[in-house]
């Protein structure tokens, strides 16, 4: 058996981060809980909270139609890799939609910048180690101007789900995968 790929390792990190029940299975309540938690941490208004919940529902439907009510880690990785390989629609309707809503929530003043504080708020609690998260923030700042733009964040999020390069910007989204 070959070792897991870099993408597999990153997807395992994502799975662990969104498995709120910590039962090694994802269900709709896990994703709904993440949407609620992120909305709270980022001080989203009710409209944006609903938009984020709907984005998570859209992503969940990508699994639900293929796997039933619960998703194991192996199935999560399989569906994500198959979906991402099928073309951009899978990403745009699932993880990409969530990323876009999170950017709209985090960029309160509309300047296209995600502040370090708002970026840290994405990862509050136990989702990832703060020092690893800050290392990721610095890595996402592609032009080294001290700020992460919405486009830089979008690129990093997409790379998280697609790049087999351990040093790719997106590989640091939830801390460096091992």
UniProtKB/TrEMBL annotation:
It comes from the Bacteria. One of its GO terms (molecular function) is calcium ion binding. Pfam families: EF-hand_5, EF-hand_8. Transmembrane segments: none annotated. InterPro entries: EF-hand-dom_pair, EF_Hand_1_Ca_BS, EF_hand_dom. Residues 128-163 form the EF-hand domain. This is EF hand. It comes from Nonomuraea solani.
């Amino acid at each position: 058996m070959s070792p897991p790929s870099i993408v597999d390792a990153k997807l395992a990190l994502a799975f662990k981060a969104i498995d709120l029940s910590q039962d090694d299975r994802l269900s709709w309540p896990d994703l709904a809980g993440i949407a609620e938690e992120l909305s709270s941490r980022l001080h989203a208004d009710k409209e944006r909270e609903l938009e984020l919940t709907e984005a998570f529902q859209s992503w969940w439907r990508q699994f639900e139609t293929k796997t039933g009510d619960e998703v194991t880690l192996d199935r999560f990785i399989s569906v994500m890799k198959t979906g991402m390989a099928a073309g951009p629609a899978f990403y745009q309707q699932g993880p990409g939609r969530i990323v876009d809503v999170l950017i709209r929530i985090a960029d309160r003043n509309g300047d296209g910048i995600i502040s370090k504080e708002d970026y840290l708020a994405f990862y509050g609690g136990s989702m990832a180690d703060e020092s690893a998260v800050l290392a990721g923030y610095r890595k996402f700042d592609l032009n080294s101007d001290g700020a992460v733009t919405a486009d830089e964040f979008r690129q990093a999020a997409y790379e998280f789900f697609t790049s087999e390069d351990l040093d790719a910007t997106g590989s640091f989204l939830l801390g460096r995968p091992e």
